[in-house]
Design goal:
alpha+beta, FAD/NAD(P)-binding domain, D-Amino Acid Oxidase, Chain A, domain 2, 3 domains, seven-stranded mixed β-sheet, 14 helices, 31% helix, 28% strand
Length: 464
């Protein structure tokens, strides 16, 4: 049997389900290939508060909010020094990943994606402009192939490590530890950091992140090392004394990396197939969904008649690069906050990438003082052709670039900046420029844009 699809997504996790749902809603014939029957067990249950706007955009926020998952309201944290802190958590949630992932896959099915019966896909082969994917007794023919299989690498290609080698030891404990008002726990020791959370429906997941050589030094005995690390922690010691392991201690690779080629004219990698981030952020699921959305825009632009393929590919490459750089810098900064064992090799390696202190933004004059004056953009600013998401497609638009901006900005609050800035220097005054902008922008937007430019030091008084 053969089947013809426009897009075949291999992997039904958050990234794959998001990509499939979005492309199906855009009118593409999409198949989802997943070897496991859902709901299937999966680690990574802690979701940051930033997950909610993404779930809203996917149309599943209400389903997740009413599913009975546990809202994280307080965490026990021992990170910077020897003292424990109680930290309030606004909007975080601990989920059953099997049930959570099933919600997203159901959404893809509702959007029109064809979720095929569980089976493993065989090695893909290029065929003309597309691919042939063996799948049970069928061969799927697809114009575009998406790898959403995480670290398994359904599609080959080089990966560049973006963190020191890291191993995660994890297990679920039953019968404890006792509830103490906190949902999650985090601790930092000389050669590890620990994370744990009470799971929906009972049980407690505890994870230890270590250098691989630490396990080697322990004789590769995962359970002995795991128990020793938890017992050494003032925050996790009661897990060992009051609870029982529900199964063997598992080990998985938690090293961060980035795929060298995340997209080409007939394939794309999403989620951890594209890049993996440090688990310290608790935003792996959020990041996976974001890659699915970005990839959907790029793939749609490649497949749609008249789409700008070059801009689409560059857009996704840029998305990966900015995301990786941001996560690497953020993780290094958080590791550098740990002072108690800052000299230990485990912590030195992970804080080594701490970014330099950014150049200070020039002190801006009060906006009111600039209103009667003629102004111009800072000479360090430029308007550059940049791939941007415009509606459902990627297009080249001029974007504002400046050292004070982490990346070029083409739109601000839905308003395109370049047409506003083209003749800024020609206006008799900033007030006059704002008045001209007001004629084409929603009420109140023009002064907001002027204030945003001024706060970042992008405006200066024009020479006479």
């Amino acid at each position: 049997m053969t089947d013809e699809f426009e897009v075949c997504v291999v992997g039904g996790g958050p990234a794959g389900a998001t990509l499939a749902a979005r492309l199906a809603r855009l009118g593409h014939h999409v198949a989802v290939v997943e070897q496991h029957r859902f709901p299937r067990p999966h680690i990574g249950e802690s979701l940051s508060p930033a997950i909610w706007p993404l779930l809203e955009s996917l149309g599943v926020r209400a389903r997740v909010a009413t599913r009975g998952f546990t809202r994280a309201v307080q965490a026990r944290v021992r990170w910077r020094g020897p003292d424990e802190e109680r930290t309030e958590v606004e909007g975080g949630v601990t989920v059953d990943r099997g049930a959570f992932d099933a919600i997203l896959l159901d959404r893809a099915r509702e959007a029109g994606a064809e979720v095929l019966p569980p089976a493993a896909a065989g090695r893909p082969a290029r065929s003309g402009e597309g691919w042939e994917v063996p799948f049970g007794d069928r061969v799927l023919h697809t114009r575009f192939l998406a790898d959403a299989t995480g670290r398994r690498r359904f599609l080959s290609g080089c990966r560049t490590p973006t963190s020191p080698p890291t191993l995660a030891l994890h297990a679920i404990w039953h019968g404890g530890p006792p509830l103490d008002g906190s949902q999650t726990r985090i601790d930092a020791l000389a050669d590890t950091w620990l994370w744990g959370a009470h799971l929906p429906g009972g049980g407690f997941r505890a994870m230890a992140f270590v250098d691989p050589e630490t396990l080697v030094a322990e004789g590769r005995d995962r359970e002995r090392l795991y128990r020793r690390l938890l017992a050494a922690s003032p925050i996790f010691a009661d897990v060992v004394t009051s609870a029982q392991l529900a199964g063997p201690v598992q080990a998985c690779n938690a090293t961060s990396y980035a795929a060298a080629t995340p997209i080409d004219t007939s394939s794309v990698k999403v989620g951890e197939a594209a890049f993996a981030i440090d688990p310290l952020s608790s935003s792996g699921v959020q990041t996976a969904i974001q890659t699915g959305l970005a990839a959907a825009a790029a793939v749609h632009s490649v497949l749609a008649p008249g789409g700008d393929t070059h801009a689409a590919l560059q857009y996704y490459v840029d998305h990966q690069r900015y995301s990786v750089e941001r996560h690497v810098a953020t993780a290094a900064g958080v590791y550098a906050e740990h002072l108690l064992h800052a000299g230990a090799a485990f912590w030195r390696r992970r804080s080594a990438g701490t970014p330099p202190v950014p150049l200070p933004i020039p002190r801006a004059a009060p906006l009111a003082d600039l209103l009667p004056l003629r102004v111009r953009l800072s000479p360090a600013a430029a308007l550059l052709d940049t791939p941007c998401l415009v509606g459902d497609r990627v297009e080249l638009r001029r974007a504002l670039a400046h050292p004070a901006l982490s990346r070029p900005v083409a739109f601000l609050g839905g308003s395109e900046l370049a047409p506003l800035l083209d003749n800024l220097h020609a206006a008799p005054s900033l007030a006059d420029a704002i008045d001209r902008w007001d004629r084409s922008l929603p009420s109140g937007r023009a002064p907001e844009i002027a204030a945003w430019l001024n706060r970042r030091g992008l405006l200066e008084i024009a020479p006479v």
